[in-house]
Amino acid sequence: MVNNDFIKLRNISKKFDDVIAVDSLDLDISEGEFFSLLGPSGCGKTTLLRILAGFEYPTTGSVFIDNSDVTNQTPNLRPSNMVFQNYAIFPHINVQRNIEFGLRKEKLSREELNLRVKESLKMVQLEGYEERFSNQLSGGQRQRVALARALVKRPKVLLLDEPLGALDKKLREEMQIELRNLQKELGITFIFVTHDQEEAMTMSDRVAVMNEGKILQISPPKELYNKPVNKFVSEFIGNINLLETSIIDENDKNLTLDILNIGKQDFNKNIFNSKLSENIFVALRPEDISIKKEKIETADINIKGIVKNVSFYGESTYFYVKVEGINKLLMVSNFVDQVSINENDECSLGINLENIKLVS
Prior knowledge:
The chain has helices spanning about 45-55, 95-100, 110-125, 140-150, 170-185, 195-205, 220-225, 230-235, and strands at about 5-15, 20-30, 35-40, 60-65, 70, 80-85, 155-160, 190-195, 205-210, 215-220, 240-250, 255-260, 265-270, 280-285, 290, 300-310, 315-320, 330-335, 345-350, 355-360. The protein is of the alpha+beta class. The strands form four sheets. A six-stranded mixed sheet has the order 6-7-8-3-9-10, with helices on both faces. The protein has a five-stranded antiparallel sheet with strand order 13-12-11-14-20.
């Protein structure tokens, strides 16, 4: 039976002098979950991971792992291990001895040490690399050695602090798949820190978006993308168009909004995921806007514009459209060859009300 509160953080805060890095935070993570902490630099995600690892102690609050209070335990006493961005592989010893390093204090026999090292190398598909040194390994192989060294301790929780950040794009994408497959195979709880939203969305069961020491939303990737709870999350996850709007009329069930350059529209409140304040924006993903040269009859709303830029990305094409009265160019995404529109062409943009999100 899966333990849904396998990791519990309660009222966690961390202050460095006058700076609040983590601010009164609660969090539950399930056993066997691939959980990502996502946010910009300085948002508190690495500090939170270090609190889980025991490298930092919280100013307030408690940390529980597998029903045990580990708040004041040192890292070596916790059922967790950590993989760092810089790998921290010792260059003067070979792969075998690098991986053994964390087991030295466990007083295992040489036979048991060798067995554990082989087991961990098999997990990361590096069997036969025992005698190699770090300068004989590629970046991806060094990353796998760092993973093997963490896994050899057989932790209940693996903490990963931007471990793919030093890899090139192609290798990073390959390692994302390998990491996800490894996590599924082992069933270990992975907690992954990244500022790369594609990375988090690709691998995770759930993602926590952080900013200024707080968690703004915890959701599966699809829900995070389709139902952002506020303006920050909507902008941080993927591309989005934000249009200024104001409330004209409101009751318990419905909203009437005046949307910049579109006019008055009525909405049912139930379709919105966010808590709305006075400062509201209409949010539209680029793929939720249609584009044609002529009026789009199937759309609820048509807007006229002029195409200022066309960017080809292989699987899709982005059109950047100037609409009178709107300061920023609107981004519109279409599949390749779906439309034939060039720069400086006049066009119609079609919007269906069901695709509109409201955020504040």
